[in-house]
């Protein structure tokens, strides 16, 4: 059993690792019945679920770390159990017949087991359903190069990526290989063939999976997240040699996207990496989800379709000029965050004040709003 309050050592209840996670399934039945998004299991508190952004308890009896571990551990895939035993954190997808798929994070807090289980969507959304700016759809028609989707945690990057894959799958005949940890959206073959590789189950890690994908004659490679320099290096190389590569990063604009990748490499390599990015990049989209008073979140975004000017700025590390390239390449489909925010204000989705708090360039937003009569 796990020793409560001992953060130095992770102990796993091995006798439970192959049993049926009955208690977890009961909680997930309740989560699904109430259309909740997350099941939260924290020691000294009863199990809770998030329904429409509101936390609600399930019962009144508080859980112990041992109870949480016993309930959740059997649901983890073998690699995630090993990760939990070694490092105290295990991430895994989990499928329950009749309920759907879930993403499990079993972790430690103050030496005790805790867990978050998120319900994964059963249907891949369309771009129209996401209500993103219309220009985002152009990314599904890019033929080659690297397309990066940036945004903070919870900004909908993975969902946008899935919608773009769905758009290609429905309308183009391509061989698409996705590499994810874990797989969140499952794609059925339509006009395209879609292979989905899950890290820890189908491949050891992102670099290994990406190298293997390049030998599978793909037209499109989707890398769920650019987590390390080796993955970035292989993705850049693939994009330079004619593949279309999509990925995500935790960044807020085009300049921070380039910096994030270059800065992950040793200083002596950063110049050459920027040169590779200048050649490989086709587009950089950054997005955010803005909460409204009624709990609904609306998306705002910025898109730079990378052209000659942007490539020169990236190569010279003059990243402060990338923002002006958005305006210059508007005919190619680029648009600024401020233009996106102004559109939301004109549609009465946001107030002027709410939009101003989100703008990276408030003076540009003020100009855009005046153009629309606000």
Describe this entry's structure for a reader.
- The chain has 374 residues and is an alpha/beta fold.
- The protein has two domains: 14-119, 2-Layer Sandwich (Beta-Lactamase); 127-335, 3-Layer(aba) Sandwich (Rossmann fold).
- It is 36% helix and 23% strand.
- It is built from 14 helices and 13 strands.
- The chain has helices at residues 22-33, 65-72, 78-87, 127-130, 157-171, 206-214, 229-240, 254-263, 267-280, 308-315, 322-328, 337-346, 352-358, 362-371; strands at residues 38-41, 48-51, 54-57, 90-96, 100-109, 112-119, 145-150, 175-180, 193-198, 220-223, 244-249, 281-291, 297-305.
- The strands form two sheets. A seven-stranded mixed β-sheet has the order 9-8-10-11-7-12-13, with helices on both faces.
- A hairpin with a 6-residue loop joins β1 and β2.
- It starts with 21 loop residues before the first helix and ends with a helix.
- The model is unreliable at 1-18 (pLDDT under 50).
Overall number of structural domains: 2
DSSP helix fraction: 25-40%
Q: Any guess at the CATH architecture of the largest domain? A: 3-Layer(aba) Sandwich
**What is the chain-wise order of helices and strands?**
HEEEHHEEEHEHEEHEHEHHEEHHHHH
Which CATH class of the largest domain? Alpha Beta
Mean pLDDT: 91
Strand order of the largest sheet: 9-8-10-11-7-12-13
Features:
single chain; 374 residues; alpha/beta; Beta-Lactamase; Rossmann fold; 13 strands; 36% helix; disordered N terminus
């Amino acid at each position: 059993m796990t020793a409560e309050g001992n953060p130095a050592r992770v102990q796993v209840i091995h006798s439970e690792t192959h049993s049926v996670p009955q208690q977890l399934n009961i909680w997930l039945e309740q989560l699904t019945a109430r259309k909740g998004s997350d099941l939260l299991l924290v020691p000294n508190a009863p199990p809770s679920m998030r329904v429409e952004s509101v936390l609600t308890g399930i019962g009144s009896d508080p859980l112990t770390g041992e109870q949480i571990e016993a309930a959740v551990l059997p649901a983890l895939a073998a690699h995630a159990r090993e990760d939990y035993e070694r490092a105290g954190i295990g991430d895994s997808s989990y499928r329950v017949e009749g309920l759907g798929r879930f993403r499990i994070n079993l972790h430690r807090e103050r030496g005790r087991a805790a867990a978050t289980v998120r319900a994964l969507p059963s249907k891949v959304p369309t771009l129209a359903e996401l209500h993103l700016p219309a220009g985002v759809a152009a990314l599904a028609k890019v033929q080659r190069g690297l397309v990066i989707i940036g945004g903070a945690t919870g900004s909908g990057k993975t969902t946008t990526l899935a919608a773009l894959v769905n758009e290609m799958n429905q309308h183009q005949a391509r061989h698409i290989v996705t590499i994810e940890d874990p797989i969140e959206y499952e794609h059925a073959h339509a006009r395209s063939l879609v292979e989905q590789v899950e890290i820890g189950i189908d491949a050891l890690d992102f670099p290994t999976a990406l190298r293997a994908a390049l030998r599978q004659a793909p037209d499109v490679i989707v890398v769920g997240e650019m987590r390390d320099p080796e993955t970035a290096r292989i993705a850049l190389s693939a994009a330079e040699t004619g593949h279309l590569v999509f990925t995500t990063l935790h960044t807020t604009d085009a300049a921070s996207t380039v910096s994030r990748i270059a800065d992950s490499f040793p200083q002596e390599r950063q110049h050459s990496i920027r040169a590779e990015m200048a050649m490989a990049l086709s587009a950089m989209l950054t997005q955010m989800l803005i909460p409204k008073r009624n709990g609904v979140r609306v998306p705002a975004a910025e898109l730079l379709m990378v052209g000659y000017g942007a490539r020169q700025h990236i190569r010279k590390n003059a990243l402060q000029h990338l923002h002006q390239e958005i305006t210059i390449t508007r005919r190619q489909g680029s648009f600024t965050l401020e233009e996106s925010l102004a559109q939301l204000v004109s549609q009465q989705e946001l107030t002027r004040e709410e939009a101003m708090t989100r703008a990276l360039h408030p003076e540009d937003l003020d100009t855009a709003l005046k153009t629309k009569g606000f």
